[in-house]
Records
---
Amino acid sequence: ETTVTLMPTMLGFTAVPKSLADVVAVPAGYSVSVLYRLGDPISGSVPAYANNGTDTNFAQRAGDHHDGMSYFGLSASGTAPDPTSSLRGLLAMNHENITESYLHPNGVTAGAVRLASEAIKEIEAHGVSVIEVARASATGAWSYTQGSTLNRRVTPNTPMTFSGPVRGNAMLRTRQSPDGTAGRGTINNCANGTMPWHTYLTCEENWAGYFRRDTGDVAARTAAGRAKENVSLARYGIGQGRAGNYAWSTAVPTDATSTVFARWNATIVPGMPNDGTGDFSHEPFTFGWVVEIDPFDPAAAPRKRTALGRMNHEGCEVGRTIAGVKPAFYMGDDAQNEYIYKFVSATPWSAADATATNRLAIGDKYLDAGTLYVAKFNADGSGQWLPLVFGQGPLTSANATYPFADQADVLVNARLAADALGATPMDRPEWTAVNPATGEMYCTLTNNASRSAGRVDAANPRAYTDPKTDGRAASTGNVNGHVIRLRETADTSEATTFAWDIYAFGAGSDLDPNNINLSQLDATNDFSSPDGMWFGLPSNVTGQATPLLWLQTDDGSYTDVTNCMMLAAIPGTVGDGGTRTVVNSLGGASSSAVTRIGKTPGTTLRRFLVGPKQCEITGIHSTPDGKSLFVNIQHPGEGGGAGNNTSSWPYTQTGAATGSARPRSATIVITKDDGGVVGI
Ligand code: FEO
Ligand code: CA
Ligand code: CA
Ligand code: CA
């Protein structure tokens, strides 16, 4: 490990006010440029984006809904990783979802059968981009390199392989891969992970929503001897009687042999083999994974890392890597009352692997064998990592709710295993981030409308009512979310116990300081629904004792007051605050909970950016010198549609009068006008 000189730490900018304007606002002394927008062509042969619904070939354009993102420095030769390069690099980013209407000339064409031409655009607008980006000079402008041989789109149709304990398992046998070793594509990719061996992890979040499952499928599976699949599908939110997002399965392919639309219907087809190889009844088991991509090898098939379990994977960030110690990978499962997980490799870290050229093989080494754990938070501020290991505790064939067959069954059904172990249901675990100076792990708990006064606990202690000023009904539950953090026992990633507290509670600064605005936020830092999160540069680059924590919001509750935002923080350490008794506004004294609260953020948490209308701020990374910060603006104007757009960002960013220009998700670059490190 590097020894660093501890320097005083302070935030070096003036807070940006809350705003409802259709523009990205940053502090005085900073500039924003727009780098990579929905529809921008990545190959040289694809025309510029018309942005009127007529564009095609999204497999060679930027997808929609930019999300998690990593910057990888690129060597002068243009082919290899160079972790010191701040002028040339690759950006890998997720395209989580679409704002469907804006992709078509007059919105979605009505009818029981989707037009194939519309469905293929929508499918290809999902997935991942890898693009080459470059800065003209140390103080110059950034651009992406259209036509770079490293540019790549990964879509829901891209061939992939399975690796780890579930590879080849009966549950992964499909029409496309009868031996259960190959997958097809990735979807609803939310947050990410940046591996020290220069690969990109992309995480499949709300994949379940895309599947159609017709009424009658429960009975059909039971009759076919597949009743366990009904338990599993229900636990992952795929009940019967659903059309699936965007109803892609209704579209008729122009190529009669193609299954790109039919695969989104998971209903058993009578007369087909009963092992998933004739219909698409196993297709849902091929999603819900963490996927590793080598951004430096566009020909390499991405690998679905099954050892990390199957869930609504939000993100997967690695903890500190220390030679001889098994590294940990921290993950949230984003749905109400789901859990926080960590995977500990079976293999201790070897520093030489950071410069190896067989990057996906290094991924095999650290991500295919190890132990998956789920978190239990105790009221006294302690916690346990409970192992998801077949044969231990309730994870056996004798389990009454779901009889587990083997370790692959435990991983495919990680949620059922975590239920059985007694993990703590959380207020929607979103991103994880690890403080490189301390090893402490932070996880955003974005909000939870189903958190009620009767079932608050120390780690999820708030249930309250937040009125609205824009005519909407009041929100209830944990309306504004919080950020929990933990410190592993003895500061080792291999620990099976930890200490925890809550770093900050989201809230409007006008709300009750005793029971809701527990972190005593003020007008410079009040926020709601924390989601994206990333620790900035290590101390030895910034000269600071503590790296900056960047916090981004994805909020519907606070949008009567402000658009979504990004804040910077100097976060302190676990246990730097105290304990408090919280009285829930929904339930009175009987529902009070003692909880552990971090030091009041005060001047160490400050609003740095506010986004345009109806956007989410998500995805963040920087160049290694800290002077260029990349941020994604997701779905501006998502509440509108073709002919009724509710934002014209990014056109509004330059002040141009653009009338009704359709909004576009986009990557922006933030630089400091004096050429310094962003944020300090
Ligand atoms: Fe894609 Fe949980 O946000
Ligand atoms: Ca998110
Ligand atoms: Ca969110
Ligand atoms: Ca979103």
Note: The chain has one domain: 30-205+288-672.
---
Amino acid sequence: MRRAIQLARHGLGTTSPNPMVGAVIALPDGRIIGEGWHRRCGEGHAEVNAVASVADRDMLREATIYVTLEPCSHYGRTPPCSKLIIDCGIPRVVVGTLDPAPWVAGRGVAMLREVGRKVTVGILEEECRALNPVFMTAHSLGRPWVTLKWAQSADGFIDRERCPGGAPARFSTALSTMLVHRLRSLHDAILVGSGTVIADNPSLTTRAWPGRDATPVVADRRGRINPVSTCLDTDRLITLGVSTPADMLAILREKGITSVLVEGGAAILQSFIDAGLYDFVRVETSPVRLNTGVPAPAIGLVPADSFEVGTNRIDLYGRVPWWASIR
Ligand code: AOF
Ligand code: ZN
């Protein structure tokens, strides 16, 4: 199962909205005869790739498949893995954790047991759940995973007081920008307020990182922004006309968004903090002092992890995902 978890991690950044999943096929003496992982949404699941990697199919009749997530039972973009396991004759299945998605939710295990396959559930369960904080949150809490992110001056301001179009205060460095773009690419959506769009006209892309671009989302209750004149990818842009974080998340969930990175401004960040609707917070602090300006949001927590990137300090709060501590 540990090996299966390692394999699953190769899917980071390309499986969403699907989870990262790994699978290992072994003989009773422990010899590994097949390995696989889910590489990309729309492509084969971990079990499919693991079975395909086995040279001698006859060996499957005495093998055990270890899979980090319950094999699926549904026809989605691909056919059910439980059916594959049954059809190729694997007698024993070891599952890390159950799949909380409503289209599986225990039915994969039930299908296997119904035809007499031996199934063990809950091996390295915490680790297997922690592989996919986004997928687990989206399906168990019924809302997207929420990351809050801002950069601040040494004296706690996120920006100067300035008029629209005036240059924003710059806290990030070339290296920390790469890490922010990596963080963006690991979310389905990036949310900003209309004030941020009017003041900065950001593009919210991942140009400093070779990952996919997240869907841009603008909270624009009063219809202040003109989508045509923004730098945002208007083909994919979602505008939200609602005011509360809970309402925003409900709409994003309906649109199939499983994770959102909230990038500001201060008021929208503070509204998510006040509503308790966040999972993880990343704060970058520059040595630059502004003396006056827009105060940074107040989170009132002790960091779970801190590290330095060049001149800047990064503090991580809340439930820190495994992929956020990589540095
Ligand atoms: C597995 N093994 O490797 C993964 C699973 O549209 P599909 O066919 O790709 O199905 C996606 C759903 O399948 C996803 O929401 C989750 O419930 C499950 N993911 N299941 O047996 C895998 N990635
Ligand atoms: Zn599957």
Note: Residues 143-318 form a domain with the Dihydrofolate Reductase, subunit A fold (CATH 3.40.430.10).
